[in-house]
Amino acid sequence: MKNILKLLMVFLLPLLLINACRDDADRDWTSPEPTFKLYDTTLGANTLYPSMENNPFILTWDNATTGSGSYSVVISATSDFKNKVELAKSDTNTLKTTIGALNTAMLQAGLSPYLPQNAYVRIERGTEVSNTVSFSVTAYPTGKPVITSPTAGSALVLDAAKPTVTATTFKWTDYTYGVNVSYKVEIAASGTTAFLLVGNVQNVKELAVSNFDLNELASKLSLPVNVASSVDVRVTAISESAGGVISKTSDVVTFKLTPYKPDFKALYIVGGATAAGWEASNAQLLYQNQNISEIYTYLENNGEFRFLGQQDWNPINYSLNADGIKDDYKYFATWSANLEVSGNENIKFTGNSGMYKITIDQNTKSITVTPSSNPALPTNVYLVGSIQGWNAGAAISMDQVGDGVFEHTIAIPADGEFKFLGQQDWSGLEWGNIHTGGNSGYLGPNGDNNNIKYVGTGGLYKITANIKMGTYKVTPL
């Protein structure tokens, strides 16, 4: 019998030990049993707003049964307090703090702004803990974005050969919001406050920027080309809820940026479809503003044209990058539907004859041809401006000297301004300096022009408006 009992003990003892270990493993050692009472609390509102920041938040509890020292008030986003944050310490069984401090602690504990979530609070002193009080609450953001790319002191050299390729992607960390959040990325020359907008995104924490766009910003900041200059970047988070708009701006990160000098090409239009004709020496230079080359000009249906790099047939020609075109002429990667390949050199225009705007983006190597707001050539052209009192009813008739070409000789005073009209009133056709006021020599029609500004001397000048070519000229006599 004794032997049998011994054998039973040998078999039972390991099982008892295993069960004891399982009990230990199943016990939640992070949540000890409470030894004193925390009294329940109410915030008075489930949704917090910045306007409540200084409102009081009060907790009371019974004294701990043993031990001494300060009480620690802790907050967690989970009931097990695995990741807890200390709200405050107290030497008594009462804590009076603010809604702003509570809001910050909840965010630090992992609650997201603008999302209703449970917050868990308990009191700790030494090895003793109180019971847990939980409440549903919606916090508001107090922290700011943190830029992670570029890093401080890093260097970025822009690539002139790849203008449309991404130069860098700005990245940052921030809350997970419960509402839409807009981010604004800005840069400035280091140490200044003249920040320029790089771009805006919504609900994402990165912004990709091309070599060209960053180089344009560097130019506006007057950064020297081919020189590494210090640049500051910042990110602003803008969110809105029932409590209003909250804007939080990151600390700046300073990095080195080396811009390049843009190498944009001169483009001359030539061909039977154009007002310039096929004489290379008469090829018309397009108006150029950085990467955009453009002109308002006449195009003939089913006529052919192409572009030259000079007023000569050699050495540079530009045409469509399409099968059948000479390899040396291939340039435009995309083109509008009213253009097509013609032979091995030229572009055919398939739209109706009339006035069109030709726009070329040298970054993307695209060409589009769209109708002008004044599609037909005028029968008459009149001169109006400060040189005659801006009286459209008495606009001066110009002499027609060619197809779509008009001239007039007149004295132009200092700071003279004028435009061309298709009638003696403001209700119909008009042409002025393309886009904005100035003296570029290029015409813009209704909706895309401003005054031609010419600094005269009071002497006589011949003013020529070549509507068909899309140009004007002021010649001293």
UniProtKB/TrEMBL annotation:
Transmembrane segments in this chain: where?
none
Signal peptide interval: 1-22
**What keyword terms does UniProt attach to this protein?**
Signal
The record's InterPro entries line, in alphabetical order, gives: Carb-bd-like_fold (IPR013784), SusE (IPR025970), SusF/SusE-like_C (IPR032187)
The organism's superkingdom is given as Bacteria
User: What Pfam families would the database entry show?
Assistant: SusE (PF14292), SusF_SusE (PF16411)
Q: Which residues form the Outer membrane protein SusF/SusE-like C-terminal domain?
A: 380-473
Q: Which residues form the SusE outer membrane protein domain?
A: 23-123, 141-235
Instruction: Give the protein name, as stated in the record.
Output: SusF/SusE family outer membrane protein
